């Protein structure tokens, strides 16, 4: 359970940075020349920076110097003696000390020859003194009540009691106090000792906001991020800022490693108990006993626990068991590389924070602090920029490389940078590889495939390709995202550059021989492999992407020895037509590829991208064979294609034929592809014949703009309810079929053609229409029926130079672009402007 308890609220704020270890508060005339004097000397001898007011206390108000000293002390020791309460100065000091206690200062009372119950009950000398104060301050009785309340609070704290009946000598008693002070300080020494904590404050504040220190609930907060991104550093900073707000606190570092060995698990439990209990050393014989002890000893205490670098939920369970027993106000912070750990622990997603890479200016600042001590950084400015780009905001890399290069010459920097580009730094590689080592075997394959081939590709397409390789990529990629090895932005797979380099280095370590490696991606390696015909069945994927237009002379059967090749990606112009492609190929992406009539698409193919290639489809596909696994085809700008035959691809989902300028005819069978979702025929300027009927019940996107010679639009089958985007700009249609009304799912329509709109612009035809583009046409009027399109939000009618009228638009409209409608009549202009001014709070693009 991520929610630990459910109780009320309390207040707190961040811990200040201490100047003094100890502040001594005492009644001078009672103890200055004896007990307190000896205690002060002992504290100083033990190295504690201790503040003592050496001046005799005079006047009613305590000085600002004392106030600042109290605020700047980690621990306040209050020595209660016989005449303590008779001093208003001491009482005011005490109130100030307890104000500081509420924001994290430790208060340790010493009851020197006075019974704590006398202070708690306010009898005896304390009762007499307070009665006198009430008489003296009868006009400000609240002040005395505040003193009474604070004295009671102080008497209820755990502290030290010494009187004449004690069997210990004073020096022995003082040594016990010193031991306690040592324990408190050692347990609350600042953890964030990074010499250059760039960007720490803003990141710590983001986590503190999730901790909601005003709440008295007990709960968990999760911190996750890439290895080396600074999770440990920022969590230490948070610990330093808030630890003293709790009765006990503990930062357990490296939980993942310590949980691998049974004895280390027990040591973790002992460390936790010792820290929380301020040095008490309890014996723990096994993990179960340790878990029970932790619950027993921590029960009822408001505690702060930070478990750093957790890799599995069981590591938390082994330490804490069930964690619904924490006292109100307690906080448990988990840091991990794997977001899935936090989800498994049922931490509220609103209390999970991802530590991001440094911004560029932060990265520069951190690197410069590590890299320069005596050198003039201006001489290295260009190299600094290259390293900042290489590290891509990862603090680990900036620190390691900065420290390595510190004090070295410009030439040494250049040599190092060239090396880093090819061989990752060992210290960086080892830290980043930890996340990879924790993956399942199929997840490792998915990660390496993305690192070598699919960074920058759409996730949906990669899922289909890797799914055909029996890798279960749906769960696998989600796990990689949780572990911060892969990122997903707008549906595109990506990863940090150094993570990618780490993955590729793993492949390079498979063998010194290229043909013995599973994946080849560097141009010079692939060029060598292919031109020397060095292939083998070990190779899973190849990329031959030339940095500039290049002709490569390869043998027609260069891939013959690569029987297990699954991914083939390239752009180099192969001089000779290929005659063979491996049967296991799943993904073929090669621009400007030439295939001989002997070479057919492999049967296992899932995605085919041969844009700008010299191919004829009747040769590229085996006639009569069902390509049931083929999901995506991209033949953009293939000028040799004149006719689209029956491809026998029943499960095709994406078909891109944009700018196939010589395509004339599309086979009737294409109109019956039930799985087809995207069909792009934009710019097929010679296209004349489409299937007579479209029964594409999964089609969502249909692009026909620029098909100037296409005069007849197919009949639409009533099952085509999924189509939400249709573009008919600059097509040759003179009329549209009445069956268009079956497109009830249409959201975006661009019927920018010279047809009569009245016949098909009926709201019942397109009930979901939100965007309508009629731009750059010679249509003179828009039907009045447009006002009944109650979901229409966007209307584009710019550059319609013949348009004269615009009727009243629906109230749902949010954006209108009507620039360069030069012949629009005054009434339409006024109506449009009036509707805009009454209904819209955003600009209208409108020009007469």
UniProtKB/TrEMBL annotation:
Keywords, A to Z, come to: Leucine-rich repeat, NAD, Plant defense, Repeat
Pfam families tied to this protein: NB-ARC (PF00931), TIR (PF01582), WHD_ROQ1 (PF23282)
Q: Does the keyword Transmembrane helix apply?
A: no
Q: Which GO terms describe its biological process?
A: defense response; signal transduction
Q: Which GO terms describe its molecular function?
A: ADP binding
Q: What is this protein called?
A: TIR domain-containing protein
Q: Which organism is it from?
A: Quercus rubra (Northern red oak)
Q: Which InterPro entries match?
A: Apaf_helical (IPR042197), Disease_R_plants (IPR044974), LRR_dom_sf (IPR032675), NB-ARC (IPR002182), P-loop_NTPase (IPR027417), TIR_dom (IPR000157), Toll_tir_struct_dom_sf (IPR035897), WH_DNA-bd_sf (IPR036390)
* The TIR domain, residue ranges: 18-181
